[in-house]
Design a protein that fits this description.
The structure is a single chain. The chain is 35% helix and 24% strand. By secondary structure, the protein is α/β, with parallel strands linked by helices. Strands 12-11-8-13-16-17-18-19 form an 8-stranded mixed β-sheet, sandwiched between helices. The protein has a 5-stranded parallel β-sheet with strand order 2-1-3-4-5, sandwiched between helices. It has 2 domains: 172 residues, Rossmann fold (3-Layer(aba) Sandwich), CATH 3.40.50.1950; 222 residues, Rossmann fold. The structure holds cytidine-5'-triphosphate. The site of cytidine-5'-triphosphate has 13 residues, from helix 12 and strand 16.
Length: 403
């Protein structure tokens, strides 16, 4: 594999020497791009010797071959380790003032970033926002770890260990499993439609089924974009550390729709698990509604777009679209009938129908679904953990796509 390792100006750069050695020993063709600041910690000679390739830091060398574009294009994987707070900010802004910055803009390879900085800098809202933005663009973040820092203090901010970064980065690109290299967009959680600055219209979705769908796909080799509306505490724990899942957080149905349309571009499969509000408040109050304003009589609502139907109508050839339906039926026959009507209305390839109620579906860890196919036949049935249900849905998708 052609791997570019960007090194930026932090003391953890000495650990990146070991990272490069691990990658080279693994048979990879490694090209190091240090920033000018990085060279204050570890010199050019070391990088050349350890990577067994020439190292340059300037965009003005090898001008004829346009080095940054060449490296960016050839790369199968780009790792930035250590990534300082400044580097994260520069990446977020898309700055291209050195060879590493230009390479990062020119590449379409997966990018893995290993941050390293003092705890205060890592926790600063600016850094948090930058990390969130990078994640939403599909950048994979590994670490930082919690432990002793250079100044004698301790806390989150230590760069992850080289072995860990190497294992994580390689698993981002080389996946096995029956869904290997499938690109997938999944939505999860419940949307929240604001009424005023403190109140909203929401629902009881915990986000666990959608998170399980994302983790199952990624475990089976897919690259996943998970668009998450409001979810219960801990629902995204596994997804947020998975090397092949990028999480994009949203609030309202409108935001979820835009994020899903974006995530669906180039995706092989799109799965809408989110519980989307069908209506939003016509006029959101910009101040908290108060009883002093007089008794509130009615709340005027306007319909939201049907995101799933929109995704179906805009879909690219060979894209598989899956919906989830939450129903409160009279009995099993009614559940199937409602499911079939909904599948036809939405035009999806597969619809996973599940019964919900105060005691089933939403907040529990188990679920039961019936998956309907394009001819309205039941193509799969699953009950048990949300992961078991997720695997059954992916089995149906894999079968449909001839995998
Ligand atoms: N959905 C959507 N956009 C909406 C509402 C629902 O994309 N505005 C999607 C959900 O994510 C789910 C599927 O449509 O995949 C079915 O959702 P459900 O709430 O069961 O159905 P509705 O379309 O809301 O129909 P109804 O309210 O009549 O049951």
């Amino acid at each position: 594999m052609f791997i570019v390792v960007g090194v930026t100006g932090g003391i953890a750069a000495y650990k990146t020497v070991q990272l490069v050695r691990i990658l080279v020993t693994g048979g990879h063709d490694v090209h190091v791009i240090p920033t000018a600041d990085a060279l204050k910690f570890v010199g050019l000679t070391t990088w050349e010797a350890i990577s067994r390739n020439p190292v340059t830091i300037s965009v003005h060398e090898d001008v004829a071959e346009v080095r940054h574009v060449a490296l960016g294009r050839k790369a199968d994987l780009v790792i930035v380790a250590p990534a300082t707070a400044n580097t994260l900010a520069a990446m977020t802004a898309g700055l291209a003032d050195d060879l590493l910055g230009t390479t990062l803009l020119a590449t379409s390879a997966p990018v893995v970033v290993a941050p390293a900085m003092h705890t205060e800098m890592w926790r600063h809202p600016a850094t948090t926002a930058n990390v969130e933005t990078l994640r939403s663009r599909g950048v994979h973040i590994v670490g930082p770890a919690d432990g002793p820092l250079t100044g004698g203090d301790s806390g989150p901010g230590r760069m992850s260990e080289p072995e860990q970064i190497a294992a994580f980065a390689l698993s981002v690109v080389s996946a096995d499993g029956d869904l290997a290299d499938l690109r997938v967009a999944v939505s999860t959680g419940g949307t929240r439609e604001p009424i005023d600055p403190v109140r909203f219209i929401g629902n009881r979705s915990s986000g666990r089924q959608g998170a399980a769908i994302a983790v199952a796909a990624a475990d089976r080799g897919a690259h996943v974009r998970l668009v998450a509306a409001h979810v219960d505490e801990g629902a995204l724990a596994e997804a947020s550390v998975h090397p092949r899942i990028a999480i994009i957080r949203v609030g309202t149905a409108g935001e979820l729709g835009s994020a899903m349309r974006e995530a669906a571009v180039g995706a092989d499969a799109v799965v809408m698990v989110a519980a989307v509000a069908d209506y939003r408040v016509a006029e959101v109050a910009d101040r908290k509604l108060s009883k002093e304003d007089g008794p509130l009589q009615t709340l005027a609502l306007v319909p939201n777009d049907d995101i799933l139907a929109g995704l179906v109508s805009e879909r690219a050839a060979r894209q598989t679209v899956v919906g989830f339906a939450a129903e409160t039926p009279d009995d099993e026959a009614d559940l199937l009938e409602r499911g079939r009507r909904k599948r036809r209305r939405k035009g999806v390839d597969l619809l996973a129908v599940n019964e919900v109620g105060w005691n089933a579906g939403f907040e529990s860890s188990d679920n039961r679904v019936i998956v309907l196919g394009a001819d309205d036949e039941v193509v799969a049935e699953a009950s048990g953990t949300k992961r078991a249900v997720a695997d059954a849905v992916w089995d149906a998708v894999a079968k449909l796509r001839g995998r």
